[in-house]
């Protein structure tokens, strides 16, 4: 694995998600929203609880927690994500910040949740340790991350298209953590345990997401997947065209009527602070 420059990767993630925030909200938030109920259930979120939503994006999980009667704070590294979340969820509090250096005192929250932020943290162990620090004793933490591409076709199609087109690593992009490391149950459980959490569980979840067609899927993926879209855009024009053609061929395998039905799968890992 390439050595990760934490600052360079963090800067990339901040800039990329700031740029794609609006398109992410339009296309990808309806997908990530499927994790809200499993996450909040695993964290046992209820009325009156203080909840931190880490890497909150446009605030879909925060909104679901607020509907349960929780007092919710959302945090994201991208300013535009924070602005969208705040505009859509006036009953929650949102602020910009880095998960590796949370701007909260110890034991500030009764639950900490995170939907699909894990693979975007340059040092996951440090991020989990910070989340555990701000969690009150007896509180629960729950993180969702994607399953392997074979069961998660939203990512598989793009990754397969890149490989089929012969895309080369882009020298200008900082190395990041392995995207599917925490798709493995044992790796996700070990990460949670490394933060001192007890009663660790990992549960699989799956659903089917419908997209209008290959064009909508391509546009949505390029406007939502920060690392993959940056890799596509770094390729020469001829390679970009091959990627697009391969993407459309692979997407066609999931055609259903006039649209595309994509299997999507994720894991929720959870634990309690002893």
Short description:
43% of the residues lie in helices and 24% in strands.
Q: How do the strands and helices of this protein lay out in sequence?
A:
Elements lengths: L5 H27 L3 H7 L7 E5 L5 H8 L3 E6 L2 H10 L4 E4 L12 E7 L8 H10 L1 E12 L6 H12 L20 H10 L2 E15 L2 H9 L3 H8 L3 H16 L2 E2 L2 E15 L1
Parallel strand pairs: 1-2, 1-4, 2-3, 4-5
Antiparallel strand pairs: 5-8, 6-8, 7-8
Descriptive notes:
There is one protein chain. With 274 residues, the protein is of the alpha/beta class. 43% of the residues lie in helices and 24% in strands. Strands 1, 2, 3, 4, 5, 6, 7 and 8 form an 8-stranded mixed β-sheet that branches. The protein is globular and about 55 Å long.
How would you describe this structure in keywords?
single chain; 274 residues; alpha/beta; eight-stranded mixed β-sheet; 43% helix
